[in-house]
């Protein structure tokens, strides 16, 4: 039932951000209460696969890794994915990076400079909370560099991701979409609760006013950077229980595709048992 979620979310050429039902639950026809036990079981499965990925890198010459790229407008639920989905696995095997406004040092380099430095080591799941895609999203919408500069980045990103895939990294690219109305609700909740003030950023309202421009920029990202080696997944995210289950499934799908196994012992088990018992 749930592996159809991954299938249903894959971006299909011609699909439009504007036409997306952000409250839909593609591939899952149950309600929140039905999802809870499924989520628990699938989180366990994810943790098991992550352990195998980690273990594989301790074996001979296995350099594989997984990179989860999370994109979405403010309050789309990226933080919840990190807390609840990534939080279900052993932090030892996770390399998490949030990408905010570039520092002066970062701005002195090519836009992929800080991205390359944050790539997951072999055996790890890298998590990008925002990513190199900001360089064709906010940068495009806000005219932070000339059009010919951001315009060239789609191809540069594709070439970069090709390189990653060729070196053993499986990309799981996820664009989370909420409705304008749902974003308002979420941001209001932050203002209604003093323990959530820290999550509120007055600048989010300014970005919110540019919603159509962001939709257009997201559409261009999907159209130009969804490749067969690194496809995008479009996740309706008004229902948080769904987006969590969906992204759990996407990670499981990627990890199962690696056909992982625990590395064989590089010592003689019987001999070691004897030595240990005699010690
Ligand atoms: P939350 O969703 O919880 O608010 P956040 O991801 O928005 O978290 P913030 O530190 O509030 O985290 O914001 C990061 C900001 O940095 C975003 O507005 C994002 O668009 C911006 N940003 C990220 N990368 C770039 C970039 N390359 N150039 C300019 N701005 C960027
Ligand atoms: Mg923010």
UniProtKB/TrEMBL annotation:
Q: What is this protein called?
A: Polyphosphate:nucleotide phosphotransferase, PPK2 family
Per UniProt, which keywords does this protein have?
Kinase, Transferase
GO molecular function ontology, one term from the record: polyphosphate kinase activity
Question: What biological process terms from GO does the record include?
Answer: polyphosphate metabolic process
Q: Residues in domain Polyphosphate kinase-2-related?
A: 44-257
Where are the membrane-spanning stretches? none
Domain of life, source organism: Bacteria
| Species of origin | Mycolicibacterium rutilum (Mycobacterium rutilum)
Q: Which InterPro entries match?
A: P-loop_NTPase, Polyphosphate_phosphotransfera, PPK2-rel_1, PPK2-related
